[in-house]
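call fold target=Alanyl-tRNA editing protein Aarsd1
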Amino acid sequence: MARQHARTLWYDRPKYVFMEFCVEDSTDVHVLIEDHRIVFSCKNADGVELYNEIEFYAKVNSKDSQDKRSGRSITCFVRKWKEKVAWPRLTKEDIKPVWLSVDFDNWRDWEGDEEVELAQVEHYAELLKKVSTKRPPPGMDDLDFTTTVVSCRPAELQTEGSNGKKDVLSGFHVVLEDTLLFPEGGGQPDDHGTINDISVLRVTRRGAQADHFTQTPLAPGTKVQVRVDWERRFDHMQQHSGQHLITAVADQLFGWKTTSWELGRVRSVIELDSPSVTAEQVAAIEQSVNEKIRARLPVNVRELSLDDPEVEQVRGRGLPDDHVGPVRVVTIESVDANMCCGTHVSNLSDLQVIKILGIEKGKKNKTNLAFLAGNRVLKWMERSHGSEKALTTLLKCGAEDHVEAVKKLQNSTKLLQKNNLNLLRDLAVHVAHSLRSSPDWGGVVTLHRKEGDSEFMNIIVNEIGSEETLLFLTVGDEKGAGLFLLAGPTEAVETLGPRVAEVLEGKGAGKKGRFQGKATRMSRRAEVQALLQDYISTQSAEE
């Protein structure tokens, strides 16, 4: 089979040219970076040989260039020989091969806006230098890396079971030399992932260390591969960066401070230091944050020493008592700078969109603002659209008429319920007269109906008006759950009521000759009837 070209993306930076050969599950990878060209070859998952040779637009420093392989691509970081000189194209010749494209998601016009971009690349270049003696440099989208187990000790983890009760899992707290799994903190839940394909169920911070809870032990000194659950991580990145943006805009527009926030499973909530927020103010915040998302503002992460004067100028709610090391500052360009330990997107465009769901009354003159960011908005729209389609089918009308159609149904239902209640009352009166005139009247009288409610049973008792006969009424499923009412002489009802509830495995209460409640075992009505008959017989014998 003839060799093919690998699809290649590239983008330009002041000091580096970044190239990505897009090949999933590659094998036999070879990368040769020379001062004037790069030669790349590999095989893809189907065994097809791929080969790319590129003559560079300008000379590069091959000795200070790197490449990194992941399961999805091979990325090259090529150091320019002449820094701060923009490359209009990657190739020496002014041609555009069909397999070569500009990576517009990462492309920025850094000329004329050099300070911010240069700071980013300087930071990344330093990172390359630090890790060059240990392992290939990590990419911005690394999902796994190799490290060493430092310690492993028995531990327990409390989880919420399916029935809402707390379950306790036995396992181990594993400490690694380094980790890419975020421990819960700062309002953000922890990352999930694997260590050597062993599931990490919880990551918590203990001082400067992270405890990874697993149900399988890992021996100290073992080299392990850590992989992050990217879907969960990216979701948390979107929500956390979204919170920073909303917080900053709410402060800028209305002077409201954020006093706390929670990244929930379905939605996130920001607590604002304001007793009230109007719908117009919510709309203004939502419009402003989405304008900034469309402006593609970069998000930068810096580390400052604790005694750096700049620390006093950034927003934050203070550092944990056990904090050690530098202070991490997350900056949204021209919008916000905030002390934060969480994970964030690198550009506001990665948020896609923010939707503010509404406001709720908070505690102590606070207002809670609920929101969704990024993929959560898309999922919410998908659910809403699914509900809308289902309602359109059920109501036989377009979405714009759903509300009116439901109002009509509600009015019709109320009318039917009223008519049904009147009929049920008439039926109860008729049943009461039938029971009273029955030849079996006296002693113990029982009645069960599948349809009915407590009012139905009480109307029967009111119509009969006898305090000499024990009346045992039930409604509901003959063998399942339902309602019961025992009426008769006050002393007898007080004695027998709790015993009836016990036999029916239910609960109830009573006063003035009536005991009523809910039952779970209507199939035991015969036992109740026998209990009542025994009581009447005993009372008659004593008289």
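return ok
The two ends are 108 Å apart (CA to CA). The helical segments are 114-131, 230-254, 279-294, 375-395, 402-437, 454-464, 490-503, 525-542.
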